[in-house]
Design brief:
It is a multi-pass membrane protein. The chain has about 650 residues and is an alpha/beta fold. It has helices at about 1-25, 30-40, 50-70, 75-80, 80-105, 110-120, 125-135, 140-170, 175-210, 215-235, 240-250, 255-280, 285-290, 290-315, 320-330, 335-345, 355-375, 375-385, 415-425, 440-445, 460-465, 480-495, 510-515, 525-540, 545-555, 600, 635-650; strands at about 410, 430-435, 450-455, 475, 500-505, 520-525, 575-580, 605-610, 615, 630-635. A six-stranded parallel beta sheet has the order 3-2-1-4-5-6, with helices on both faces. It has a four-stranded antiparallel beta sheet with strand order 7-10-8-9, with helices on one face. Helix 20 links the parallel strand 2 (about 430-435) and strand 3. Helix 8 packs across helix 15 (about 320-330), helix 15 (about 320-330) packs antiparallel against helix 18 (about 375-385) and helix 16 (about 335-345) packs antiparallel against helix 17 (about 355-375).
Amino acid sequence: MEHSIFIHILSMLVIAIVAIALLRRIGLPAILAYLLTGVVSGPSGFHWFTQLQMQSVAELGVVLLMFTLGLEFSVPRLWAMRRTVFGLGSAQMIVTALVAGGVAMLVGQNLVAAVVIGSAIALSSTAIVLKLMNEQGWLRRRHGELSVSVLLFQDLAVVPLLILMPLLANDGTQMSFNAIAWGLLSGILAFLGLMSFGKWILPRIFDEVARSRSNELFVLSTLVVALVTGAFTQWLGLSMALGAFIAGMLLGESQYRRQLEADIRPFRDLLMGLFFISIGMLLDFNLVMQYWWQVLLILISVVLAKIVIVYGLLKLVGEKAKIALSTAISLGQVGEFSFVLLALAVNYQLLENEVSTVLVAVAVISMSIAPWLIRHSVDVAKKLTGGNNKPQDEPVEIRLPVSDDNDLVLILGYGRVGQTIARFLKTEAVPYMVMDLDPTRVTEARAAGENIYFGDACRMALLKKMGIRQASLVVVTFCEPRQSEECLAVARKLAPEVKILVRTRDDSNLHELKEAGATQVIPESLEGSLMLVSQVLFKCGVPLARIIKRLESERRNHYQYLHGFFSGTETDFTLDLLHAVSLANGASAVGKTVADIPWQTLDVELRAVRRRGEEIDPPPADWILRRNDILMLVGKPRSIEKAEEYLLQG
């Protein structure tokens, strides 16, 4: 029997791995893979497990999810965004919940079920929206800020909903609003009590834990704090997830926040996977097929209703049509916390299984189409509202001058690197202009008298206005490789002759940027190595002129000798590595010349040959390889493996 359970668990994990790998390739979130695994493993599939068997373990996933949500909860950030968070966010939640709950009552659901349905539909997916907007670089744009504000309020609204769920489970008696009000009040009092108690006690506990310098103790303490606070609120008749959220809030402002988040993440991800698997087990495909047209009708109604509601609210407060519509489209899906509410509602018998199955199916499909909707939200909004609208991201009061100065340096991106370059240019009286997409940074820099303008450096029209065709030099300082590549392509298209310097973190995409048109690519990590080398050589008495000559030679050769390094325990398989191959007696390459080896086919570079302590760099083509020669190869790990096999075995 135990052996059978082990086989079932192993099979379920294999299905989850395969499903995640396949869905990630087509750009769908891992949540859907877990739901699919639950469907296959549950009553609708092989019936290895039931939802009840997974419930206890799955609830721990929700507890840890709420704990990490509490860690990310920032009171200063909330206060800075209070107008949009509590204004737009609360309006969206209330209006959407009332509309969805009202429709549910019209089709025969009772008041309790209507409250659950309305609350579940009102939530959107924080994980999907934030991840995709971050990939697109939209978090600092207006529609990104509005989306984050709404999602932040939704995350906060989950807390009273978690308090409300057990209060609504009153064994079938009529719901008393006085009882609910008293329950909410007791929940708030418990919340404040735990906050007051933990503000002074928990940081001191973790101070002692940190002094022990034991990773195991730190991880264990984190898990115990999350579970103990959850057990306490459950003992008060509230939800375990509420207590974990409070514990996360208590520690969110401490210096241990990042470490706590990193320690808890593996457990959270694993247990949340099991939670979504348990949700998938609730899906009865027979019911879904039976009510397929209701599922599609509800799906279309939910997505369109949420889009219309958010769009209408944003238009009421004076937002541009394009911004309002792109925000609304981004928030049109149903969120992961909706699964939490639906699961609790089924456990507390607040919702019928048939209704829950239909709503889970609607949520799954809406999350499946969410990536496409979010990625194309701006394009769809532009087409529907008219493409001639002035983009919201370009302040009307700033008019970009066209510069005729042939010595102008154009700096794209005004972070630390851009600001450092600007300071040195100012010292040398070299004229420059800057473009950046951070409105706060642009406002502060302009107030200080900097020649900086707000805008997206990847847009052709803005680069034309900045005078890129008259500039002598363009410096791209972005951190994100995708943004740098896009900006480089536009700049090179507008100004084929201009010199373009591109800053990168490392040399992983150096050749791609050079091929895309960069005059020179400056990898930070390699330049840092060269600066350190120059200091070492200078301290060792090497003449300064010789040091400068060596550094310039290295740069002209595109950091040739800084690309390959001996690998350590943690190998990055995307970078070139340096590997030594010793030719033993009987090796296939012994007796052959360097030219006889198909280096291009093997996709490796022969950096040098060492023989009897002497290094030949590089060896000539007619160099004959002998026994005990050591060949220094540079290439990707897989290519080096093939090359070593060829050199030794043929």
